[in-house]
Amino acid sequence: MQRLLGLTFDLLERFWPHLVVIAMVGLPFLVCLWRVYRRGRYNPDADEAAAASLKHTASHSLKRLGSNHFSVLDEVYIPRHEDTGLTRLDHVVLSRHGIFVIQVQQESGIITGNANGPHWHCGKGAAAQSLSNPIIRNDFHVKSLAQFLELPIGLFFSVIFFEKPVTVSRNLPKHVLTKGLGRYIISHKTKLISPELLADVSAQLKAQQEKQSIDNARQEHKAGRARRRRDTQESIKAPTPSSPWAISK
């Protein structure tokens, strides 16, 4: 060990001027390489865009509501009001000022449509894609929830929220939102629900969530949607009585 230390000190004594030069030249070079590497991996613009996108989600906005006045339930499955199966509510916000049923949309771009039309369109010209009117869809959710809770429809508020950047038609109702989800909810000031009723509603919905696992609820909901889609396609293909083929059959 002593011989090794002695040899080391001897080498340092003989070559220390060279080592100093190497350190002075090599260290800045290594620092430059590290900065280039970090610049390639770190994109501040991308990080800022990701942070802004996260802040625009419904979940992020709802988490900022005061827990003393609002209770938020995510991905709630309840029985459909007109037939068997389950319907999915993206978010439900419970408050003394009403029960808010929030439908989240993931489309981006230009959205055109009207409140009563069965379909809206996303995009322009031949590239435009059709989507079911989310107002009508969420009205169905509201009716299902009101029936499930056995409460008047006037205690519920439908909210449509686009999470991605969109431009929507000016003639759409105020509850179709592209921003300000939390502000819209807290803008409702009239107290409609007593604390006792609110606690009962919360207990019913939490019991419904605990009734079956989330995976089973998702599978049942998915199977129901597939069945209804299949029934719709079959009804479209079915011949009408006025069809010559139908008469001969």
Reading the helices and strands in chain order gives: HHHEEEEEEHEEEHHHH
Structural class: alpha/beta
Widest sheet: strand order? 1-2-3-7-9
Q: What does the overall shape look like? A: elongated
Number of strands: 9
What does this structure look like?
The chain has helices at 2-41, 44-55, 58-63, 134-149, 181-186, 195-211, 214-237, 244-248; strands at residues 70-79, 86-95, 98-105, 109-112, 119-122, 129-132, 156-162, 166-168, 176-177. The protein is an alpha/beta fold and 249 residues long. The chain folds into two domains: 1-36; 57-235, no CATH class. The strands form two sheets. It has a five-stranded mixed sheet, with helices on both faces. Strands 6-5-4-8 form a four-stranded mixed sheet. The protein starts with a helix and ends with a helix.
Overview in brief:
The protein has 249 residues and is α/β, with parallel strands linked by helices. It has helices at 2-41, 44-55, 58-63, 134-149, 181-186, 195-211, 214-237, 244-248; strands at 70-79, 86-95, 98-105, 109-112, 119-122, 129-132, 156-162, 166-168, 176-177. Helices cover 51% and strands 21% of the residues.
SSE layout:
Layout (H helix, E strand, L loop, with lengths): L1 H40 L2 H12 L2 H6 L6 E10 L6 E10 L2 E8 L3 E4 L6 E4 L6 E4 L1 H16 L6 E7 L3 E3 L7 E2 L3 H6 L8 H17 L2 H24 L6 H5 L1
Parallel strand pairs: 3-7, 4-8, 7-9
Antiparallel strand pairs: 1-2, 2-3, 4-5, 5-6
